[in-house]
Amino acid sequence: MNEPQHISSRDNPLLVRLRKLAQDGTAYRRDGQVWLEGDHLCAALLQRGGVASQAVISDVAWQHGHLRKLAHGAARVAIVPAALFKGISGLESPGGIGFLMPLADAPAIDAHVASVVLDRLQDAGNVGSVLRSAAAFGVQQVLALKGTAALWSPKVLRAGMGAHFGLRLVEGLDEAALQNLSVPLVATSSHGGDLLPHAKLPQPCAWVLGHEGQGVSPSLLAHCALQVRIPQPGGEESLNVAAAAAVCLYESARRG
User: Fold this and answer.
1) What's the CA gap between 217 and 209, in Å, rounded?
2) How many Å is the maximal CA-CA distance in the chain?
């Protein structure tokens, strides 16, 4: 076990790097590393067999045995004053510990597995919630089209609560990439299509979730084998896309 490194300067290159990753949601694409903040995300990475190249922990958190043990799950450990950790945190109440994780090359699309397609979803909270539902209901793959919030951004990671580490994630795709899928596309809609309880859902399928305001693009909708809508006896016009995703993915898993 390597001895922890003690860092006391905010200008330390590691801390400068982490501030960029914490503040810029797409910086991981240029850096090749992802910043995971908080013990839940760090533990979820290790539980899934993931690799952390660097742990950063505040001197206060270091006093807690379970966090100290968690930090040693990374290849290297750096201890920083709590005030400096706050400077690299994206949370109102800093988690006290974080990991740097190498960003693996994007995997190839698996044409045959149950999937979710994200069509320009903008809200990071929605994207993370969809990933969490996908992992919970047995979806193996999430395909994000260009214009969707960055999947490995800090806000999406926090909303995903560790779901990232159990999914095949491919982002930055054009619609044309979906033509290689062997599973049919099923679009969610608030305005038309078969009612979900009565729809004949293919198994497996790729659920297509559209932009929060515009829905699924017309060009993509034209390639969908089925459109479904969720009954809303309460009279609301539509559901939040993350809520709709949870309902549809549950129904798909229940029938499977």
Assistant:
1) 10
2) 62
Other beta carbons within 10 Å of 199: 17
Cα–Cα dist 59/105, whole Å: 34
Which domains does the chain show, CATH number per domain? 5-102 (3.30.1330.30), 115-255 (3.40.1280.10)
Residues 6+ apart with CB under 8 A from 51: 45, 75, 101, 102
| pLDDT tens-digit series, residues 66-92 | 999 999 999 999 999 999 999 999 888
pTM metric for this prediction: 0.94
Backbone angles phi, psi at 151, to 5 degrees: -65, -30
